[in-house]
Amino acid sequence: MRIAVLGVGLVGGSIGLAARARAGSEVCGYDTDPQVTAKALELGAVDRTAEDIAAAVRGADAVFVAVPVGALAATVAQALDAAGPDCVVSDVGSTKRLLSQASADERFVGGHPLAGAETEGVEHAREDLFEGATWYLTPARDSTAGVLYERLHALLRRLGAIPTAIDAETHDRLMACISHLPHVLANVLAGQAARTLGGPGEGSERLPAIGPSFRDAIRVAGANTAIWTDIYVSNADALQASIDELKGRLDEVLAMLAEGGDAAALGAWNERARADRDALLAAGIAGGSAHELRVHVPNRPGVVAEIALALGEAGVNIGDMVLSPSRDNSRGVIALWIGGEEPAARAEAAVGKLGFQVLRA
Fold it and tell me: In percent, how much of the chain has pLDDT > 70?
């Protein structure tokens, strides 16, 4: 398989390394900085480099756009213009609705791997970066080509990732809460602590040693400004809603602390937080053997995306999938492998609600 990676930093370089080592792919890399592409070639993240997007994409079976969020829409559009009719184009950006125009093209499937590191640049790329990581995919219900979605899904599995379908709006609301809001909080906490303790800009008193809990809380404070400014702007409405909800929850805590503090209410609040944390840490862990479900579907645009999104909404990960069209191409069977009896039962129910026949193999 021939793969083009547009933007060969940490994530793009890691895609290249994983694709070459785990999928036996030939990788062509492009970056606006020639020194970056040269470094990627030197480190083995790509087999060859290209001087422009069109040259990188030419002849590719799959394209990954791994540029900063602010450049995503324009770069994806250029990639689609240059890509062949059977080439799947995806991205790795943490905001998905800004690519709604690209989603009208059957060759495009939005993507976002939940993997990264505090270090940046291709020199820190790793072949195992995506091992066991959720990789969100946002296919369009009415346009994404099923064959191309299957190809991308299978490739991501070979990279070690766990592809999970989700609609773009839900993705952006989720990221506002679990990714973007924590960065906002880390920035605010770092600034508040520095000023409270007489840190930078607030006098010469030396900051005292801080404990591990606070270090964990501010670990992402001041993350790459160019990248994170784009993210804040691109997902501003969802992030505002998340901050507003947080303000409301903080007001509830303030009320519990008023007039000396309501010990019973505070204790119950803390216990709920413990239960919520435990549930979140356990979420998504599937056990048991894989179950094969065979879904009989008509051959129409968007049917694979419809099923994948329904399973994503039901919290079911697809371990693997294979499309088998009928001889006249009017219908087909989608074979899905789901890990664990309970997730398989949920998958069977979710797909059945769409009106498709589902059989256990």
Answer: 93
pLDDT at residue number 290: 77
Q: Are residues 276 and 138 in the same domain?
A: no
- Can you give the residue range of the structural domain that contains 67? 2-166
Give the up-direction half-sphere exposure of residue 313: CA atoms within 13 A in the CB hemisphere: 16
Asked whether residue 282 carries a pLDDT value surpassing 70, the answer given is no
Q: Tell whether the torsion through CA atoms of 185, 132, 69 and 107 is positive or negative.
A: negative
Mean pLDDT of the chain: 90
Q: With 60 as the cut, is the pLDDT of residue 201 above it?
A: no
Instruction: Compute the distance between CA of residue 342 and CA of residue 311 in angstroms, rounded to an integer.
Output: 13
78 and 56 in one domain? yes
List, in sequence order, every residue forming a beta bridge with 62; answer none if it has no partner: 3, 88
**Considering 143, 166, 189, which residue would you say is the last residue of a domain?**
166
Closest CA to 133 of 158, 160, 106, 169: 160
Q: Report how far residue 113's alpha carbon sits from residue 135's, in angstroms, rounded to the nearest whole number.
A: 4
Q: What is the pLDDT of residue 203?
A: 44
Which tens digit of pLDDT belongs to each residue from 105-140? 999 999 999 987 667 899 999 999 999 899 999 998
Tell me: do 116 and 91 sit in the same domain. yes
Q: Specify whether the CB–CB gap between 335 and 294 falls below 8 A.
A: yes
